Amino acid sequence: MAKRRTDTLSARLWSAWRRRQERTRRQLMDTHIYRVLGERLLHDYLWVHDKRAIAGGFSLGLFVAFTPTIPFQMLIAACGALYFKVNLPIALLMCWVTNPLTAYPIYRFALRIGRYVVEKTPLISDVFDLYAFQAGMARAIILYAVYLCVGSLIISTTAALTANATVRTLWNSARFVFGVLARRRRVQQNADRRRSTSGSRGPSSLER
């Protein structure tokens, strides 16, 4: 009974997920991304639910989310999904990790990481010294832009790789668990079938 409830719950969750993606597919047609990229966003390979597509969607979306490209993140994610053939809704959803509430602390953290890496890396420091600008606003803007880009690239790469590995691990673990449950269910069904068969043959053998 518990197994049947588990199967019913997983089936309902999967069905709800599919319906949600279909609604997203219809809603996407009213966005500026659809007006730019058109029918290509509705290709079936952008809405696949396999391990590679979902893991790739998480990786792409998080990579774009942590880059300082907020006005264009969803467009970049859509173009990336077309190129890499990953799950488009997940890639677009992950872009919202950076939003008006989280953008400032995330980019401030990226700025600190980038500054630390640039200042502690001799090669990069030498390049800056070689092409140094006069002290002033222009130099400060360029330095902070480089700090932000370097820090964002480090965070984006780390988040993308971590998300991809995590999704694949969870997918494989879930597949293993459901496989074990399915095998146990088949064994139980075969045992029940043998018992019912032997029970039906018992009276006839006694009559003989």
Salient structural properties:
208 residues, mainly alpha, elongated
Q: How does this structure look, described?
A:
With 208 residues, this protein is mainly alpha-helical. It has one domain (16-195). The chain contains 8 helices and no strands. The protein has helices spanning 2-27, 32-37, 51-65, 73-84, 88-94, 103-120, 122-130, 137-207. Helix 3 (51-65) packs antiparallel against helix 4. The longest helix has 71 residues, at 137-207. The chain starts with a helix and ends with a helix. The mean pLDDT is 83.
Brief summary of the model shown:
This protein has 208 residues and is mainly α. The protein has helices spanning 2-27, 32-37, 51-65, 73-84, 88-94, 103-120, 122-130, 137-207. α3 (51-65) packs parallel to α5.
Summing up helix and strand content along with how strands pair, one would put the structural category as mainly alpha
Largest sheet: none
* Strand element count: 0
Q: Give the count of helical stretches.
A: 8
Name the shape in a single word. elongated
Number of domains: 1
Rounded to an integer in angstroms, the radius of gyration calculated over CA atoms is 27 Å
Uncertain parts: none
Binned strand content: under 5%
* Alpha carbon gap, first and last residue: 38 Å
